[in-house]
Amino acid sequence: MSFIAPGQLIKMQDEEANYDGMTLHIHPDFLRPYPLSSVIRHYGYFSYSAAEALYLSEKEKATILSIYRFIQEELSERIDKFSQDVIISQIELLLKYANRFYDRQFLTRKAVNNDLLTRLEQLLEDYFNEEKSLVIGLPTVNALADNLHVTPRYLSDLLRNLIGLNSQQFIHEKVIEKAKEYLAKDELTIAEIAYHLGFEHPQSFNKLFKSKTSLSPSDYKRSLLN
Questions:
Q1: What letter does residue 17 receive in the DSSP assignment?
Q2: pTM: predicted TM-score of the whole model, two decimal places
């Protein structure tokens, strides 16, 4: 099951193949009088790629199909002043079920997801060890997601389900870990550490480090000597 936001394009890999399924097309104007019109953008799976589709169990499929059929019946047989309200409520229900089923998928595909987490950690380790940060700057969510062949939103949602952090928070945690390694070795000044990690200004490094550890880099360095 896939979700497509306005403006996105899809292409069938095999145009001659026979596909079987159902689609629900929703015009933005249909949602506009309802709170759902602003809430819907917070459903992250509208930013996922086709490869990050939701794989439904038979029971889940039956639940989704029952909502589709209810909407279809409402559109074809019962058009009245209540129809739009009823259909909107069914769309909201469908989206909430999709949220639940994606949470289940993140958990049940634990081996695959843990492998992706391992690859992400290795990417960041290599990034700092090869000193790419000196040239490129701090690692970005988009660049890491691109290297892992997933969308940035999918990566953030996956990490949030696995370890309780979004992608940016995870990057910051790894930056702090690496900073602590540098500080413990006592080979670089704090400004040099900041540049090695990809910060343009040492002040930005100091601010992030203190926000994560409650200590400035210099205070942390002194604490290692006590």
A1: S
A2: 0.76
